[in-house]
Amino acid sequence: MVHQKPVILIVEDDLDVSEMLDAYFRVQGYDVLIANWGLEGVEKCHEEQPDLVILDIRLPDIDGYEVAKRLRENRKTINIPIIFLTEKRNRSDRLQGLELGADDYITKPFDIQELRLRVRNALQRSALGSISNPVTGLPEGAIVDKRLTDCLKNDSWAMLLITLENLEIFREAYGFVACDDVLRAVSLMIQSATRKFGNIDDFIGQFSSSALILVTSPESITKLKEQIGSRLGQSLDYFYPLRDRELPIQKDKRLAVKIVSLLPSQGPFRNLEDIKSTLVPKD
């Protein structure tokens, strides 16, 4: 369904909040739909196919988690961005929402300007389309470029570029399937470490065919670098067939991990190319 203006569906049982959001986002140039019950929200999504859903978790019938689950299970609504709006602040509550495919999470009482920016950003990400790597399932291309470009707006970020060295040599020796298995396993290990030692809104993307990028906070970067380096360093030998693990393969031909960290203090960074050229210096 093509809309003349972006359509936001607000699923919120507090009438004061829903009316305030309705009036505010209409002034901002959006069309707005309102649902006060979870099931009503699911039905309106199927009928109207809004461009974005602002979803309260505490609803009088089914909760917001169940609404999100049903939207993600339906082919027509699976890709609609969802922003949870809730009083729940626990990390476990945020993780539950994100695991259900929510795009963002904002707690009450909220700053309306912050919500407006989160809505705008979610719509922009959605407009870029679903660009993910077929092997790891991680975002790549324009999605990664946008996330890195967003870092130019403030100094509260840190990056890790995790590169698998000699992956081409491994592919030539053991084939594409084995190589894809390595990439998937490495991706999962990085995601696991980030869940444990990182932050809710950390970003992991496919930087290149053999490198992943992690955007985190300056406070988390040291621990993440240490944990990811340790986990991958201990695992790489196990990707080789048992018969080859003890062979004296030359060090410069064996799988290895290289991790490069980047902080705003290493700048100034004027644009995306400045960031990329610092992460991967040109010969």
Describe the structure in your own words:
- This protein is an alpha/beta fold.
- The chain has two domains: 7-127, 3-Layer(aba) Sandwich (Rossmann fold); 142-279, Alpha-Beta Plaits.
- The protein is 43% helix and 18% strand.
- The protein contains ten helices and nine strands.
- The chain has helices at residues 15-27, 38-48, 64-73, 91-99, 112-127, 142-150, 167-174, 176-197, 221-235, 272-279, and strands at 7-11, 31-35, 52-56, 82-86, 104-107, 158-165, 203-208, 211-216, 256-262.
- A five-stranded parallel beta sheet has the order 2-1-3-4-5, sandwiched between helices. It has a four-stranded antiparallel beta sheet with strand order 7-8-6-9, sandwiched between helices.
- Strand 4 (82-86), helix 4 and strand 5 form a beta-alpha-beta unit.
- Helix 8 packs antiparallel against helix 9 (221-235).
- The longest helix has 22 residues, at 176-197.
- It is elongated, with a radius of gyration of 22 Å.
- 29% of the residues are buried.
- The mean pLDDT is 88.
